[in-house]
Every structure is written in structure tokens, then in C-alpha cells.
Amino acid sequence: MAETQAHGNDFAGLRSRLTADLRPVRRFHPEAVALGVVVLGFGVGLATLRSLFGLPATSGAAEWLWLWGPSLLAVASATILIGLALCTLVPGRHPGPVSLAGWTGLCVALHLGVTAVTYGHRPTSLPEGADHLSLRCLGVELCLAVPAAALLVWLGRRGLSARPYAFGVLGALGTALVADAAWRMVCPYTDPAHVLASHSPALPAVALFGLGLAFVWDRRQLERWCQRREPRV
Amino acid sequence: MASSADLEAIDPRGAVPARTAEDAVSDALADLMARYQEGDARAFEELYDLLLPRLHGYLVSLTRNLPRAEDLLQETFLQLHRSRHTYCPPRPVRPWAFGIARHVYLMDLRSAVRAGRHVEPAADELPEVPIPAVALGTPERHGLRRAMARLPDDQREALLLHHGWGFTFAEIGQMLGIRAGAAKVRSHRGIQRLRELLGGTGG
Question: Which of B88, B91, B186 to mutate to test the interface with A (most CBs of A within 10 A)?
Fold first, then answer.
């Protein structure tokens, strides 16, 4: 207790400064943020795509389940990935590398699995000479995922980033997977060659975008730290 | 800092008992932290008093330098205040607070490298940290502190977090961003290395 009192004297100024700044704060809930981003992004994205391109016709609940069910599963796994990425912003709650790598692997496996399932149920290939549709698919996915990833990183600024790069890459990858799932419900072509060439490249591209955002954020954080600390050294 | 009663409670085989004084403190901290988030000044004062010696000891163990640890302690409380909204009740407060202290320490290291600033050399002995003497079956604290300072950083950190402050390996894993098993291995290797060092110096 004597030691505590000694420290208390040393830190009296800091203590009174912090006491003067006391006010209620709104708690940061990584899970709620993740769910909010995914539900909002997926819902708005799907509604927009539906109004622009329409949805492929399905001949009943069974077909709907086979074509859309795997995509919804991919959305659910991407939500968990985004949640794990956001957990890296909470001190003392960092998921281990095995969890992060495991969920990333599962999400990528689901991306490939959805391709196999949808192609197996309804095989459709791009028509001859319709290469522009490949670019359209990639463009739409990037248009959906890039703003969502930017929004996620912006929301993530409320947290305390101990691993900004892991957050940036995994959060952006999660939003890319959600965007991919939404677009896959609309895109009528299920040929794996088309998917791997026109849909899948959006995933590493958006993950790299997230890495870039994280780099900028980390640099700024470090600069602010240096500016605050250096005068005292 | 862990009291002597806490240290006595440590099992010689390295297991932490199910219910220690730190658990009672943990419950109190969670309640205080929730009230602190709501702007309760008294809760903040109590929280500050409870966390200060623990965070101080942790920063001393990380920096092995008292003046630097005290400097970083101030920064830790500032950061803790700014980031208080990131705590989610009723989760344990200590892993969260220690995580912030660790973040502050790492940011300071990075800023020192960036600015080309010289970081003061670490002391040969670890002052003011809870030494798990009972866990090692030796009462020789002075030699222990010296031996502790010679441990690799990662082993010393895991060992002290578990045996000194009573964190579970799952909590340590989440604080350090590693698996609980990896935290256990680090702590165990630290104990083995300590035994070697103490055996070699007659401790």
C-alpha cells in the first residue's frame, strides 16, 4: 500500500487530469460492428445488384437452397472472419495465429466449395466472345468490396490497434468474401474457370487494399505517438 | 503486484489454484471498469489504485528499467483512459489493461527505433516484480531476480504473467496473440532455464 501511495504522489497530476476528463463512453463491441457491417453491406449490395441486374430465376425452394445456401454460408463464415479481425483491436483479446489462419483457410475453402456446388447444380459457362462479362464481374466485386473495406477500417479506428496489418488484411478479405457471395447470387455464370478468373482475384486485391489502409493507419498512429513522446525525451 | 499470499498459493508444479485473491480482485475490477465507463469518478480512483502497482510491475519486467517503466506507466494510463470504451464487461479487466501496457511498451520501442533514440540499457536485476519463489522451491529472492533478468524476454514475460500475476495460459495467449499452448511452453521453458541458472550460481 505504501508503494501505491508513493506512485499516487508521482502520478497526482495525471490522475487529476484524467479525473477531469471523465465522461460516459459508448462501448466498442467488435461482434456487433462485424455483424452490422456485414448485414448492412450484404443487404444494400444485394438490393442494389438486384435492381441493376435482376436475380437468376430459381425453380423452387430446393434450387434456391442449392444455389443460394452455400453463399449464405460463405457470408456467415466471412462475418466470423471480420469479427476476429475486429477482435485484434481490443487489448487482451487477440485471436491466436491458428484461429486467424484457420478461419481464413475455411473462408477460402468455402469460396471454392460454393463454386463447386453451384456449378454441380447448375453448370453455365460464359458465351463465346463475352470476355467483357469477366471484367464486369471483377469490377462489380471491387466496387462492392472496396468501400465496405474502407468503412470497416474507418470503424476499426475506434479500437486500439495492436495488430493493424492483421486487422486490415483479414477485415478487407472478409468484406471481399461478403461482396463475392452477394455477386455470386446475381452472376448467372457458374463455370469454375470464370469464377477463378473473374471473381476470385477480387479477394487478394481487396486484401491488399486493406493492407495498404492498415499501413497508412499504422504510420499515422506511430507518427502521433512520436510527436507526443519526443518532446519529453 | 501479487501479494505474498498469492505467491504462497502457487502450486510447486506450476498450476494456479482455481480461486485466488487475484480472482476476487478481478471481479472488483470488472465492476469498477463498467462504472468507470459510465463516468463514475470514485470507480476510476479505485481502479487506478488497484491497477497501478500491477501495471508498474509488468512494465518493469518488460523494460527492466525503473525510470522508463514509470514514464511508460503514465502513458499507459493515458492510453487506458482514451481506450476505455474498448473494454467489454464482464470480461476480465487485467488482460485488457496489461494488453494496453504491452501496446504502449511496443509503440515506445518502435518510436525509439524510428527516431534513432537510444533506449537505456536494461538492469541486471529485475526490481519490483512478483517472483514466483515458491514455484521454484527456493526462497533466495535476490538470486532469483538476477536470474529472471537473464531469461529470454518471451520466456520471462510468459512466466511472470502466469506465476507472478496469475493469468491463465488462455489469457496470456490472447494478450500476446499466440496460442495458449505456446504461452505454456514459453513459461515452462522459462522455469527450466531459471532452474539451470540458479543451479549454476548456487541459488
Answer: B88
> Alpha helix locations (H) across chain A?
2-10, 12-20, 30-53, 61-87, 97-121, 131-156, 164-186, 192-194, 202-229
Closest Cβ–Cβ partner in B53, B96, B108 for A3: B53
Alpha-carbon distance of A97 to B87, in angstroms, equals 22
Q: What is the pTM of this model?
A: 0.82
Residue ranges of the domains in chain A?
28-220
Cis upstream peptide for A204 (omega within 30°): no
According to the model, what pLDDT value does residue A224 have?
86
Report pLDDT digits (tens) over A140-193: 999 999 999 998 898 888 888 788 999 999 999 999 999 999 888 888 888 999
Q: Contacts of residue A28 in chain B, CB cutoff 8 Å?
A: 85-86, 88
Q: Which residue has the cell 491488399?
A: A208
- Domain total in chain B: 1
Q: Determine the residue among B168, B174, B176, B185 to mutate to test chain A binding: the one whose Cβ has the most chain A Cβ atoms within 10 Å.
A: B174
Task: Indicate which CATH number applies to the domain containing B41.
Answer: 1.10.1740.10
Does A139 have pLDDT greater than 90? yes
Instruction: Output the pLDDT for position B20.
Output: 65
Between chains, do A10 and B70 touch, taking CB under 8 Å as contact? yes
